[in-house]
Design goal:
It contains 3 helices and 14 strands. By secondary structure, it is α+β, with helices and mostly antiparallel strands.
Length: 223
């Protein structure tokens, strides 16, 4: 899951600040040591408060509304902690939020993935399997050695999943390099039921630029 980056949504700076106004980095292992609320500064106010705020940087954490958090708690979703944030407007512009926003931190155990490389064309949706390895660096070396552009397909190793609804790929990072947060099908079903706004979903092992339409249905999808 990742922010859909709706143009009307308020946009965050993508950085968090301590009480002295100094920038600091937060990882999944250190975030819970910081006092709440965590200061979050906005770049733009936007025109509409949505369930998820739009990050300026893809590495930003998911900032969700109180409505989303209450739904996740009611559904007994597991593998996350929610930290209350305090939003600061750009300049001296006043803001009035309809609800609090929370940073959703995946805390489920990281699980392993196997990386498969394919060559081919996204335009024609035709691919040829090239190489598979549990070592991402090895796949990158194979990719550099190949004259064709290769597509990575990351396939979770199911036996390493602890069953939580939110997980990570590494112990250090709460989110993936492209800004996505790993979640279970139960999270997606809740998003479809409650019509979460400014969020998008895609299978982790996708090759094609495929997105699951949880807002317009029909739900559940046919496949």
């Amino acid at each position: 899951m990742d922010s859909a980056e709706h143009l009307y949504s308020p946009c965050t700076e993508g950085a968090f600040f301590d009480k002295r106004g100094e920038r600091f980095g937060i990882s999944a292992n250190t975030a819970l040591k910081h006092p709440e609320p965590i200061d979050v500064y906005l770049m733009t106010i936007g025109r509409k408060w949505m369930d998820f705020l739009t990050p300026r940087l893809s590495q930003s954490p998911l900032l969700c509304s109180e409505r989303v958090l209450n739904g996740m708690l009611s559904a007994n979703l597991t593998g996350f902690r929610a930290l209350l944030t305090k939003l600061h407007p750009p300049g001296k512009k006043p803001i009035s939020t309809p609800w609090n926003y929370y940073w959703i931190i995946p805390t489920g155990l990281p699980y392993q993935v196997s990386t498969k490389l394919y060559s081919g064309s996204q335009k024609e949706h035709q691919y040829k399997f090239v190489f598979e390895s549990a070592n991402l660096d090895e796949c990158r070396r194979q990719s550099r050695a190949c004259k064709e552009f290769l597509y990575n397909k990351r396939v979770p190793i199911e036996d390493t999943w602890d069953g939580k609804d939110f997980n990570r790929l590494t112990k250090e990072d709460p989110i993936g390099s492209a800004g996505y947060t790993l979640c279970s099908r139960r999270v997606l079903d809740l998003a479809a039921r409650d019509k979460w706004t400014n969020i998008q979903f895609a299978p982790l092992d996708q090759l094609d630029p495929f997105r699951i339409d949880h807002l317009n249905g029909p739900w559940p999808p046919k496949s």
